[in-house]
Design a protein that fits this description.
The complex is a heterodimer of chains A (418) and B (429).
Chain A (H helix, E strand, L loop, with lengths): L7 H20 L5 H8 L2 H7 L1 H15 L2 H6 L1 H13 L16 H20 L2 H4 L4 H9 L5 H14 L4 H5 L2 H10 L20 H4 L13 H15 L32 H7 L5 H5 L5 E3 L9 E3 L13 H5 L16 E8 L14 H5 L5 E4 L2 E4 L9 H5 L8 E11 L6
Antiparallel strand pairs in A: 1-2, 3-6, 4-5
Helix pairs in contact in A: 1-2, 1-6, 3-4, 4-12, 6-10, 7-12, 9-10
Chain B lengths: L2 E3 L5 E3 L1 E4 L26 H13 L4 E3 L4 H4 L1 H11 L8 E6 L9 H14 L5 E9 L3 H10 L3 H10 L3 E8 L3 H9 L1 H4 L3 E5 L4 H8 L6 H10 L4 E4 L12 H7 L8 H10 L4 E6 L4 H10 L8 H16 L20 H11 L8 H11 L26 H32 L3
Parallel strand pairs in B: 3-4, 3-10, 4-5, 5-6, 6-7, 7-8, 8-9, 9-10
Antiparallel strand pairs in B: 1-2
Classes of the chains: A mainly alpha (418), B alpha/beta (429).
């Protein structure tokens, strides 16, 4: 098969897109640092981490070559293109004609979403704002957060039946901004004077056309299997269970303030910066991070000490994973140096109050922050790092009697010389 | 089958059946772990009946139970199996106990009720051997409250006069004062037999395990002096002397490659002439086969074999085992711990002298106690179990030690996992 010269940029774009898609998905399944770089290059994380570099990069890039991000870097955009290509294999030609005329309805939807997006982001409700951010949506789907697997399925279904990346063109706030900027791109894809008005960009007519490069199209079933493969990958996480019936598992503690991952530091900044992509949740070796179900922080990580705890030995894999810098890496600061919460003991719930000589919170504390004084567990809140081991092992039922209250401002101690 | 004689002249098989470790239908047994954790409820009655018949046919005629065993099911299960065996009541001897451990059972009325329930459960109108159960558990004052102050002991003597029990004895664990008291008052109460823990490890090492223990050698010679027949319990230390152990295997296997370790232990106890019967909680049918072969007839140990056993015991003690015999008296733990399984794991995997990798140890723990909620880490240290332990193990302290050892291993594992993750992420760079 001769490589047609005018197809070279198309193949190049497809290759880059494939690489980005694979890397981003891989990052959620314990991927390499390279995979992580692909995540860090996603628009929202990159801009959150380093706006002074990445805002100009994305805007100038788009102003020059059009919506390169949506096509080659955004995993949700690439997935839509892939699905679109699988269902409409002969529409390859549409890649030349992406800029179809915008309808009024489309304009209204797009700009309302943009307005809402920036309004919520400005208000510090990152979790809500980024619920329409494409990388975050894919991450939430991959971590099986709430309805997101279905959301992605719907987006892909729209891409399968419709023309082009419906979601990018109708909803995505990044898509809208990039589309606006991309209008002036001198090297972008556009309907130019060379348009022969072939109308191949419309699927109904395109189907009747022979394949342009004479390459026989692989049959549809094979390609659907490709799609199935991707779908399986997305739900490949299993949950485990176990335990005997006569052990009463504790209920989740009702804490006033959730405990954030070590390195989140300020709760308000974290709320602003966290995309709720779920990468830290995937990365946590202790599986103690869970997506919050609170509306203002929906999908953002918090610690569930029923599952596990956040031990002193950890090198804070969550911080390494966070692409947006919402969980700060704080080089040289160990887990022991970050105080994420303080254990609070409640006499009414404690089994000691009923005369049981329980000392497990004191025994299990890795920093010896709980002492039993005159029969009463007393927490030294200077020592307590909020690891949650005491809460995890507390024998009181239904709720633990010692509960870690999260700090609104985590204390990170940077050791001199570290 | 080798036979000995009881105080009242009955022929007693040297091997007796201890109804404390009956097999369960889920593949577990009382002194071992089941796939689904710990279970004593689903006793395999059909298997039990077959095993009892097998034992009776093999010449075993002494069956020892207690109202406390197997969650209180042992007596009725054994009673049913014996009744269905087709053997006549006078062909075998039944031993059960006055197991009034709970303070609510300290009153004489409660004791009488317990005895009547035992008769009903065992489907009989007399008990051959009746025991004060584990005197010395939780100190002399508890012994006094259980049997002396309430008049239970005097009532037992009356039962013997009424022939509702044929022999009166006691089983001893714990506070030596209780044992000494019984010996001093032998003339008054005339003990027909006494049940003690004896095996080649406890023979000389019991006191070393726990200062409050009496060595079996001392107990045995005292009883022999008083001409009180001895019933042996824990001849295998709850299976610890039957399962593979490097020190035991090294010393005993070369002398008789075909003999099980259990056979050595039985031969040791059986060599003592004043031993009336040796109780074995045979769970598996293969245990029964092996034991019947050992006892038909029992070959007493020679001097050199005694020496070899003593050497094996000395070496075994160097591994500092927790003296748990998986008797389950500590169970159920109110916090769900599987205490005997944790201790068994500890004795097999957390002992010095044998090189084991961290992975091996952690995998063994997961297999031994599959549910993390039942492991040592969940011990709250309440100490409810401690007074119940006949071996006087300081269970919470041991649990804390095991937890800290396992915690250290877990830290190592966790650091290794982090290292591996970081290396994996940085590969090719």
């Amino acid at each position: 098969m001769a490589l047609k010269k005018n197809m070279i940029p198309v193949y190049a774009k497809r290759t880059v897109a494939a690489v980005f898609l694979v890397l981003v998905v891989w990052a959620f399944f314990g991927g390499h640092r390279l995979a992580h770089v692909a995540v860090e290059l996603q628009a929202a994380p990159a801009v959150l981490r380093n706006p002074w570099v990445f805002v100009p990069v994305f805007l100038i890039g788009t102003a020059l070559v059009g919506r390169f991000f949506c096509e080659t870097m955004c995993p949700l955009g690439i997935l839509q293109s892939l699905v679109n290509w699988i269902f409409h294999p002969k529409n390859g030609v549409r890649r030349v004609c992406t800029r179809l005329p915008e309808t009024t309805a489309q304009r209204i939807v797009r700009w309302s979403v943009v307005a809402a997006f920036f309004a919520f982001a400005a208000l510090g409700c990152g979790a809500i704002a980024y619920s329409v951010e494409p990388y975050s949506i894919l991450g939430r789907a991959l971590t099986l957060l709430g309805p997101y697997p279905l959301v992605v399925a719907a987006i892909l279904a729209a891409a399968a039946v419709g023309s082009g990346r419906i979601w990018c063109n109708w909803v995505c706030p990044l898509g809208t901004v990039f589309a606006l900027v991309g209008r002036i791109a001198p090297w972008g894809n556009r309907i130019g004077p060379r348009c022969a008005n072939c109308r191949r960009c419309f699927p109904a007519t395109a189907a009747k056309e022979p394949a342009r490069d004479g390459k026989p199209a692989p049959d549809g079933i094979g390609r659907r299997e490709v799609l199935k493969g991707v779908a399986v990958l997305a739900v490949a996480e299993k949950t485990t269970d176990g335990g005997l019936a006569d052990i009463v598992m504790p209920e989740r503690a009702k804490r006033k303030r959730s405990v954030l991952p070590p390195g989140a530091l300020s709760r308000s900044a974290f709320g602003r910066e966290c995309l709720a992509c779920g990468l830290c949740i995937k990365a946590c070796p202790q599986h103690v991070l869970v997506p919050s179900t609170k509306s203002a922080a929906y999908g953002q990580p918090e610690l569930d000490f029923n599952r596990s705890c956040c031990p002193a030995e950890c090198d804070r894999q969550c911080a390494k994973a966070c692409p947006a810098g919402a969980i700060e890496r704080l080089e040289g600061v160990g887990r022991l140096d970050v105080h994420i919460g303080v254990a609070v003991w409640d006499a009414e719930k404690c089994i000691r109050t009923n005369g049981t000589d329980c000392t497990i919170c004191s025994r299990k504390c890795p920093v010896k922050a709980v002492a039993i004084v005159e029969g009463i567990p007393v927490v030294d809140d200077v020592k307590c790092i909020g690891c949650g081991i005491c809460e995890h092992f507390c024998a009181a039922r239904p709720e633990p009697a010692i509960v870690v209250e999260g700090l609104d401002n985590q204390r990170a101690v940077r050791r001199v010389g570290a | 089958m080798t036979y000995r004689f009881s105080s009242d002249g009955r022929r007693v098989s040297l091997l007796g059946y201890g109804a404390m470790r009956m097999a369960t239908v889920d593949g577990g047994h009382a002194n071992s772990w089941a796939p689904n954790g710990y279970s004593r409820t689903n006793i395999d009655q059909e298997l039990l009946e077959r095993q009892i018949r097998m034992l009776l046919e093999g010449g075993v005629n002494y069956f020892d139970t207690s109202p406390a065993y197997c969650r209180g099911e042992s007596e009725s299960r054994l009673g049913r199996a014996l009744a269905k065996s087709g053997w006549k009541r006078e062909d075998y001897l039944v031993a059960t106990k006055l197991s009034n451990f709970a303070p609510s059972q300290f009153s004489l009325d409660a004791c009488k009720k317990m005895f009547e329930t035992s008769l009903r459960n065992l489907q009989t109108d007399y008990i051959d051997n009746y025991l004060l159960h584990s005197i010395g558990n939780d100190g002399f004052s508890t012994f006094s409250r259980r049997y002396l102050e309430n008049g239970a002991l005097d009532w037992c003597v009356r039962l013997r006069e009424e022939k509702r029990i044929r022999n009166l004895g006691f089983s001893f664990h714990g506070d030596p004062k209780a044992f000494e008291w019984c010996m001093e008052h032998h003339d008054e109460y005339r003990w027909d037999f006494c049940q003690i823990q004896m095996n080649y490890v406890d023979w000389r090492h019991a006191q070393e395990i726990n200062r409050r223990n009496l060595n079996a050698e001392y107990l045995y010679s005292t009883l022999t002096e008083k001409r009180i027949p001895v019933v042996i319990m824990e001849p295998l230390l709850g299976g610890r002397l039957a399962r593979y152990n490097a020190a035991l295997a090294r010393n005993l296997k070369p002398l008789a490659p075909n003999d099980s370790l259990a056979r050595w232990a039985f031969r040791f106890s059986g060599s003592m002439p004043n031993v009336m019967t040796i109780l074995s909680g045979m769970t598996r049918t293969s245990d029964i086969e092996d034991n019947l072969a050992t006892f038909s007839p029992l070959r007493p140990c020679t001097e050199s074999e005694f020496a070899a056993l003593q050497k094996a015991a000395d070496e075994y003690m160097k591994s500092d085992p927790i003296p748990c015999t998986a008797c389950q008296y500590c169970m159920p733990c109110p916090f769900g711990l599987d205490i005997p399984s944790v201790f068994r794991f500890r004795n097999e995997f957390l002992v010095s002298g044998e090189e084991k990798t961290r992975e091996e140890i952690q995998a063994a723990y997961e297999k031994a106690v599959p549910d993390p909620m039942r492991r040592a880490e969940r011990c709250v240290g309440c100490g409810v179990c401690t007074p119940h332990c006949p071996q006087q193990i300081r269970i919470p302290q041991e649990m804390a030690l095991i937890d800290s050892q396992m915690n250290d291993l877990e830290k190592l594992r966790f650091r290794a996992e982090l290292r591996a993750r970081n290396e994996e992420a940085d590969k090719w760079l």
